[in-house]
C-alpha cells in the first residue's frame, strides 16, 4: 500500500512526548480526506475548463457561501438558479448568466481593479458540455484555488478543499448528464488563524481559481498514483540502476495486471496489484543515464492497466546526505540558487502559465543557478516540470510560515493533508531534492513537537529525499553565530535565514562572523536587502543598488568561511508584491529584495551573484 494511503493515526509515531500525553492526540487520528487523486494530470487527455468563468462577489458576511451557523450553504449560489424577473416573484437574487467574467486560471486581484485588495469570497460559474460514457468516471481537477473552496456540479456539492497551493480532484461521475452541465466554485481567500499560512505573511494573498481547471475521464479502475524512482537504499553506488516504487490502480481487484515500461532504459515489467490496488516493483534498468543539472535526462515512463494508460517523463537520480555533504548521484554538490515566489514577473499576479515559468527559469539559468527554493508553498506544477527539464534542483516547501497555530490539533491534520498533496504531486520529479516543512517558526516546545512529527511524516511518506526547514532562531553575538534549536535534530539539512546588513547590523559586520553550527549540511536559505532598481548612490545609502550589492559582497565573505555550507538561496529573485511593504516611492506595495525588479530590470546584485556562481567563488561541495 502506498504509504500515503494509510490512516493517519497509524502513520504518526509517538516521538514527541508532548503529543503522546496530550489531549490533542485524538485529533491527530482524524483523517482529512485526501482530495488529490490524479498524479501526472498534465500527461492525461483532459478537457480544459480554462477560459472565461462568470463570477459574483459574496461580500462579508458571506451569506451566499455560509449559513448562519457557519456550515456550507447548499441552498445558495451553488444551485445556479436564475431570478424570474418577469413574474416579479421574490426569489434568489443573483444570476451568473448575466454576471461579468474572470479568466481562469487567474487571481481576481489583478483582473478586476475593485477586487485588488479583496480577501473574501468570490463565486465562479462555468457551463460545459459533457457526454458521459457508461462505465467511465470523470473528475474535475483544480490545480489550486486560494484558500478554501467548495464545488458544486449541477446543484450537487462534489468537494471541499482547504489550502491555496495544492491540487485536488472532485469525482463528478454521478452528477454529470449528457449535454449542458455547470460547475460553481465558491472560493474564500479570507485569512484564517488556523490556516496554513496563518493570518500574517509577507506576500500577496492572490485569491481565486489561480491554476488550471480541467475534466478528466477515466475507466472504472484507473491509475491514480505512481512512484518510479532509483532505488534509494542505505547505500547507493553509481552503476546501481535498479528502479523501484509502485503503480496504484484505484478500485482494482487484487491481481489486476499492470505493465510498466521505460523502453529507453530497457525496462519492461509485468506487475500485479495487491488487495489495495498497489503494484509494487523493483526492476533493473539495463541502461540508465542519471538526471543531473549538467544532463537533465528524462525518460518516457509508460504505465498501463486494463483500459487505462499513461506516459509520464521522469528522471532518475540519487540524493542523500552524508555528514555535512549533499550527494547527488554519489557526488558532492554545492547548491547555487535563489528564492522565488510564485508571482508572474512582468505581468504581475499569481504565476500560472508557460510564459511566467519561462521568464523565471530564464532568469535562474542566466544567473548560473543550479538550484531554486520555491518559497513558501508549492508552486504550479509547470515549475517543477520546468525544473526537471532545465536541470535545476528544487527546495519544495509547505506554507508553515512563521506564526502557525501549532497548538491546534486541527492544524496538524491540515498540515499532513497539505504535505501529502505536495509529495504526491511532485515525488516523481527528479529535480525536487528537498522537502521543507516550515519557514522561520518560533522555538518553543509546542512548535518543536508539531514540526518534528511533521518532518518524520514527510520522511515516512518519502524516504528517498532529505527533509529541511528554514530557521531564523539563530543568534549572532560578539561575532559568533549559533543555531541552538532542538527542531534541527529532526532534519537532514538546515536552512538559516539571516539579514545581516539589512534588518540587523552593517553589511561589513558579516565579514568577521564565525558560525558554530550543527554538523549537518547548511543552506543559507535567505539573506539580502532591499533596493529599488535604478536607485543609485553610495554603498552606505539604503535602498540603493550599491547598498544591496555591498550586502551581497560581505555575505559572500562570511559564507565562504562556513565549513558546513552546501548551498545558498538569497532572498529573492524578483521583487514581489506584499501588503506589508508600504513605503511610497521605494516600495509601493513591493518587497524590494529582488535581484531583479518585478518588471525584469536586473540590479547590480544580480551581476555580482551571476559572476560568483560562474566562478564557484562562494562555498564548496565538500
Ligand atoms: C523572511 C521571510 C520572507 C520575507 C523576508 C523579508 O525572513 O522568510 O518570507 O519576505 O524575510 O523580506 O523580510
TrEMBL record:
Q: Name one GO molecular function term.
A: carbohydrate binding
Q: Which residues form the signal peptide?
A: 1-26
Segments traversing the membrane: none
Per UniProt, residues of the Glycoside hydrolase family 2 catalytic domain are 319-614
A GO biological process of this protein is: glucuronoside catabolic process
Gene3D superfamilies xref list: Galactose-binding domain-like, Glycosidases, Immunoglobulins
**Which key words tag this protein in UniProt?**
Glycosidase, Hydrolase, Signal
According to UniProt, the name of this protein is Beta-glucuronidase
Q: Which organism is it from?
A: Granulicella rosea
- Origin organism lineage: Bacteria, Pseudomonadati, Acidobacteriota, Terriglobia, Terriglobales
